[in-house]
Amino acid sequence: MTALRKIANIAGLAALLALVTGLAAQEQDFLKPELAYRYAAVDTGDVIEVDWAIEDGYYLYKKKLSFASNSSDVVFGDYELPEGLAHEDEYFGAQQVYRERFYVSIPYTVVGDRPDSFELQVKSQGCADLGLCYPPQTWVSDVPLVKTATDSTTGNKVEFGSNFGASGDFLPPDEAFKPHVEALDGNTVEISFQIAPGYYLYKDKISANSESDTVRLGQIELPPGKVHSDEYFGDTEVFYDEAFGKVSLARATPDAMDLNIEVGFQGCADGGICYPPITRTLSVSLPTATAAGALPAERISAPPQSEQARLADLITNASLWLVLATFFGAGLLLALTPCVLPMVPILSGIIAGEGDNVSPIRGFSLALSYVMGMALVYTAAGIAAAAVGVQLQAIFNQPWVLVLFAGLFVVLALGMFGLFEMQMPSSIQSKLATVSGNQKTGTMVGAFVMGALSSLIVTACVAPPLVATLTVIGQTGDMLRGGAALFALSLGMGAPLLLVGASAGKLLPKAGAWMNAVKNAFGFMMLALAVWMLSRILPATVTLALWGILIFMLGVFMGGLTTLSPESSGNQKLGKGFGLLAIIYGAVLLLGSLAGGDSLLRPLAGMGGIAGGGTTAVAQHNELVFQRIKTTEDLDRALLSAAAEGKTTMLDFYADWCVSCKEMEAYTFTDAGVQAALSNTVLLQADVTANDDADQALLKRFGVFGPPTIIFFDRSGMQRHGYEVVGYMKAEAFAEHLALAFAASDAVTAQSNETH
After folding, report:
1. What is the pLDDT of residues 522-545, one digit of tens each?
2. Helix (H) or strand (E) holding 102
3. Could you tell me which of 56, 359, 575, 627 has the fewest CB atoms within 10 Å of its CB?
4. Helix intervals (H) in 161-306
């Protein structure tokens, strides 16, 4: 044991000796504090800038750093030390420290006559990463003060590498380095410097920044500089005489504007002094930007003309007969959309109310009155809205309007169920009959009024023909041609209704129990229209419940709860079967609404035990996730962020009362091909349901008359004019449209990069 102890003692002494020897060797490698921590102080006129250069492997404590004036005629004001780096210290705990380079600005005032110089006292303490900590240091240096405007001499600066002042005549920084900013085009600016002889700028200290909300600056592109061996920065690139750099811009708006750019730089004089980092704010006037930047005109491919723009040109330039024919045809196509189809049961209900005396001529007359009421009011409302710049959709889709109109449908439905008879007072009917003979003028007037009210349904959709007419009226003031196009569009939408009216005498039963069944059917159609209109303002779960109640009651009317006998007819058995199915489905819808469901096709999706978590997850996965924006400022920030990431952007104008918007969400945005085409695209959605001032400003910025309208932006944040989508578009066509819009965007961006 004794031998082992001796061996252990010897080993311990050897280790201690090695440790002491190692520390002694390291001690010889440590720099003296005045070499490890060097600073230069310079007067800018009312601020003392103290620039620090700290050697690698060393740091200063922020809390141990302070400055004071030892001269009574120079009084320091309050100054702030810059933010340091987080550091966990064995002795002082959590600290902030400084490494490499930093500078401090100290404001001051002069009491009495301005001296030539003053004494600056600096207190500091720092350590080396290897473990050595220096004692607190106090250094005093003489700092020359620049002359006032009445003096002819220039200011002197302290030379780096010494804690003491140096005399000499050096130029003020604004004379040694003169920055300039010039716009090369709407997407690029040039930053240049005139450098006085005998001075140089550090390449890596040149920067450009802007606090603008609508413009984001890219990295400044500088040519190679001259390699310079610097005492503090080592081998670095510098510029003599002059320097030129380009900065690309990402802009949220193409409009011409004035932009303030903060240009940062730092330089030195060959005589040995170095100026502190300098920042100057320069203004530049940017011309109107284009997506192609400064590309020659022959290299810019013209964007396609959107459907609404093509139709607007047609209204303005083509013959009036061609305009009327074109828009009548467009109306025929719109007649097949969900926005116009609800008018069929309304008109059919009016005709069914005529009883068994209706004839083809009578039916056609009622239909014509209905269509004319719809067309005239629709045209007048469109002209008025375009003339004053009012959002037609938003006005006719106000909650109180929808509730009033839905209530009217409920009243009409109750009349169809035979709860009361709807007719004008007999005195008025007598007077109208005197004017127009045996014609049931009261019903004709009623059909006209119902057609006028039905124009509200049509305004729930925005299609290219409507946008085209509103654009022409709003921009050119040509109400005649725009109004004629609107009227032809309305007649086209109502043309199928005239066929319904003309054939009513043959299609509708003349008498008997079938007549009551038909009236009941139209009554349920009216109630369905009421639910459909209220769905624009009610929560989806409440809407699902209303559909459930309606379908349940339809099943009851069909005989789903009646008792059959062996003698029951085949029609009764069919009615019982279909009615029972309707009752079951209505009950499922009610149950789904209570569980939080909102889909007619998947009413039980909200019930995990029934629908399964997997179904819900798939449904959520199939939905596009949009970033909601409210104001033009929100849009500008989002476009700048997308441009910084090099992504394209899609802006979708949406409203709760927009039927086609919900079609896009249900059938187009859930398509796998569409989602693949949008994989590298920032998805923005502007909900303009409220139609408040912010919504109107956003709509006005792009000349949008209402949702659904989709606008695309390229990777630099510029709008892709001509690729706008207005109204519902099927998934396959929309995916192809995306490929064209973004392919053109990539081509323009590539060409722009070639030129810059």
Report:
1. 678 778 877 877 777 788 788 888
2. strand 101-110
3. 56
4. 173-176
